[in-house]
Amino acid sequence: MNLPQSYFPYRKGYLHVEGTSVEELVRQYGTPLYVYSQSAIEAAYRELQKAFPENENLQICYAVKANSNLSLLRVLRDLGAGFDLVSGGELYRVAKAGGDSAKIVFSGVGKTREEIQEALHYQEGKGILSFQVESLHELMCLEAQATTAKKKASFCLRFNPGVEAETHPLITTGTETSKFGLTEKEILHWVKNNASKEYLHFLGVSVHIGSQIHQLKPFQKTFQKTQTLIQKLEAILKRPLEVVDVGGGIGIPYEKEKPLSLKSYAKEVSRYFGQRSPFRGRLKILLEPGRLLVGNAGVLVTQVLYEKRILKRRCLILDAGMNDLMRPALYEAIHAILPVHKRLGASEKTLVVGPVCESSDVFAKKAVLPKNLKEGDLVALLSAGAYGFSMANHYNSRRLPAEVLVHQDKAVLIRKRDRHEDLIRNEIL
Ligand code: LLP
């Protein structure tokens, strides 16, 4: 498994990303700085691919929302990845990165008419592989847009299986009360009454129950229900379906969590939908991993600005804040913190905070950090490659950080740090 530290070794006491010194990068690009390891992304992609039997009819569609930097999209495209999008903005990025129209799916509960048109006309009118439709109202709209464009829209219906993902409630998406997807009853009803439409092509079923999942059980329950649904649909349609999209959601270790074995996950996918399933390999299986591919491939490097005592507890104030990495403030997520220059000697439980004027701008309540870590020293927040930069914002009029991609001993700036002008670029005075 792609452990947080594997591509981030200490050499002579200094943290590196692959063969590149973090301190060197900071000297050149400043802080806060996102640094990604290309080899870590490639290894995660290949590990997922290798977990499946070679003859499985599989397409990995990377969930762009996890990290949408163009250079990362390019790395993933070169590995053969397709893309799972949720907005016209993501489609625009994927087009810039050269994403293949035959490997793109478009999910999300609120696709606008304009976004649907953009996807129908993607890559000189080739369109995309599939719209993952989340409501019957959206499907009516898709049909109307496809009719106007005189283009056949291929689509899956997103199934809400009513399964608890056993993860943080804010990243659970497949329970009965969730806003995502359609119930089995709704899907069966629609298919019974709308078997054939001139501008719509019904491909199959998609499902996604949540994110950062470590247990196999919720996936098994979901796959079981999805398999039954596909069988019912094929019986109604009297034809085989073509696609099952099993979504993303595989968790990564942030601290000491035991991650899901990819082999056992793949075995379940194959058992329900693949060569060994009742469908005997005729369904194209789509996977939509986000976090798994990039989460442990990135760190956020930041500098200690100040130290203070709150009651008796030591508090370090960093130059990165919740606007740069929202996950701790939003989900109480833990990102391990490492000093960039390893220090010997005693450590101390430390409150680690950002500079943003919100009490929730806290990275760790009790990080065990060296006592002699002081002003000007650098620390790295680990496992920040997914939902780090992609959720960053300008709150407190803070400039978005720079991003660097490292491959062995080569480092490339893949996003410049915002300038002050960028903060007011679209404002009118
Ligand atoms: N497919 C769909 C339809 C999704 O909604 C998502 C994530 C994925 C795939 C990718 O899931 P992953 O493999 O990355 O778990 N901001 C939160 C995570 C939100 C996930 C939203 N949907 C976080 O920082 O934990």
Describe the structure.
The model has no long low-confidence stretch (mean pLDDT 96). The strands form three sheets. Strands 4, 13, 14, 15, 16, 17, 18, 19 and 20 form a nine-stranded mixed β-sheet that branches. Strands 5-6-7-8-9-10-11-12 form an eight-stranded parallel barrel. Strands 1-2-3 form a three-stranded antiparallel β-sheet. The chain has two domains: 3-36 and 295-423, Lyase, Ornithine Decarboxylase, Chain A, domain 1 (Beta Barrel); 100-289, TIM Barrel. It starts with 9 loop residues before the first strand and ends in a 6-residue tail after the last helix. It is an alpha/beta fold and 429 residues long. The radius of gyration is 23 Å and the shape is globular. The longest helix is centred in the middle third of the chain and has 21 residues, at 217-237. It has 13 helices and 20 strands. Residues 63, 65-66, 84, 107, 171, 208, 211-212, 247-250, 288-292, 327, 331, 386-387 line the site of ligand LLP.
Give the CA-CA distance, first to last residue. Answer: 52 Å
Spans of at least 5 consecutive residues whose pLDDT stays below 50 are: none
User: Which outline best applies?
Assistant: globular
CATH T-level topology of the largest domain: TIM Barrel
Helices and strands: which structural class?
A: alpha/beta
Number of DSSP-assigned strands: 20
Helix content: 25-40%
Number of helices: 13
Largest sheet: 9 strands, mixed
What is the level-2 CATH architecture name of the largest domain?
A: Alpha-Beta Barrel
CATH superfamily name of the largest domain?
A: Alanine racemase
User: What is the name of the CATH class of the largest domain?
Assistant: Alpha Beta
Mean pLDDT: 96
Tally of discrete structural domains: 2
Bound molecules: ligand LLP
How large is the radius of gyration? 23 Å
Strand content: 15-25%
